[in-house]
Amino acid sequence: MYNFLAVTLLLLIGTPCYALADVSLTRQAELHHLLKHDCGACHGMSLKGGLGPALTGDVLTGKSRLMLLSTILEGRPGTPMPPWKTFLSREEASWLVDVLLQGQTDAL
Amino acid sequence: MPYKRTAQRFCCLLVCVIGLSGCAGLRGTGDLGVVIERASGSVQLIETTGRSSLAQISGLGDVSHASVVYSRDERYAYIFGRDGGLSKIDMLQGKLVKRIIQSGNSIGGAISQDGRLLAVSNYTPGGVKVFNADTLDLVADIPASYGKQGQRAKVIGLVDAPGQKFVFSLYEAGEIWVADFSHAAKPVMQKFRNVGKQPYDALITDDGRHYIAGLFGEDGLVMLDMWNLEQGVKRILSGYGRGRQKLPVYKMPHLEGWAMAGDYAFLPAVGQHEVLVVNRHNWKQQRRIKMHGQPVFVMARPDGRHVWVNFAFPRNDTIQVIDTQTMRIIKTLKPGKAVLHMEFTPRGEAVWVSLRDDNRVNVYDTGSFALQTSLPMKNPSGIFFTARAHRIGL
Question: Which CATH class is domain A23-107?
């Protein structure tokens, strides 16, 4: 719990709102591929859910950006969701959160 | 009038003859198979004698995690799609015969011992649906309800078992159910509760006797002896991680490909860079083999002499081969980007390997490890040969 709070606090302080342009176009294509095929291994290729929950725009509407960001970077203890911070910078994770919240994944 | 009828019949006959000859004459199906093209809703129909692709069949919906079973005559392939689609493909004509959408989200299926029934395991709504393999008409609906509120659990690890049975596990509920269809369309159910936390995949041994589910939420596996169901489930390999910190798991291992070689079973350790070797007589751990990454598929060559292993993201560009006599890694291959699946030809002289991100399927000689050919495919994932038709649990 304390860990989670600490992480949340860190993210809160350290994470301004990133514009989509902060991630290069090449990297954006790679992240799209990662989302579709590797996140998709559990959440479904079209992110409509698998062993992990659906991540479509309608499901995520109203969820906090911060919670989503920390879930991606730190994982979710007690569930199979692993931390992705080894592979993603905070900027990149933030870009993914934007993509998810804007429901851009529906076109995947 | 009679003349017209005769003419019609003649035309009919002519179409049949042309139709057959259009399929390159008579042939068997024993060297055929399908490769799933996960992102484009299609499969390629391949043959393993000349190692070539014969046809591409599309319009199959979301096949991103699709698996395949075959009719007992090896004529038809049944494809279980992610979107709840169930497609029946004619392997001789290379075309889609019938397709239904039977649920919102499904994960796999099985065909009954007598080949008459198809069972599909569903995530949404959680449960198993059973269909007539000939017509794809619904025969039985088994909701995976559990707990006091009757929540629906996702169903995983669905396999066929001798005696016209299907066996499957409930992910959230931690239960294993056996559905016996030997007497009627309405199955006799047997439910085993509190088997362990988060069963994520399961397999049945090739003799159809032991059903084994891997537990994601616990350090161990659970086994059901189908010959002695009254004995209930038994824990095996409890604490194989020995309290060590589990590494993050970026892709769940698959148990379906579990390798049974001689006296030993080889299986992926969840969250460890290891393959576990288990004695099949007492189900105790024999040893552990350090690997390049977290194993996903651990598959025995049909003769059991070698075991081929692929790995989870981010180490998914590699395959390692274990010699089952010495328990040592004898070969490390780097076939390409995102090795997803491997399928051996029925007698094991070759193995087909799907490379999702290279858009290729490579075929290797399993004796020399030489690359025999490489076929272009779009984001290939599962590879399924017709010989599966005659294997229990596949």
Answer: mainly alpha
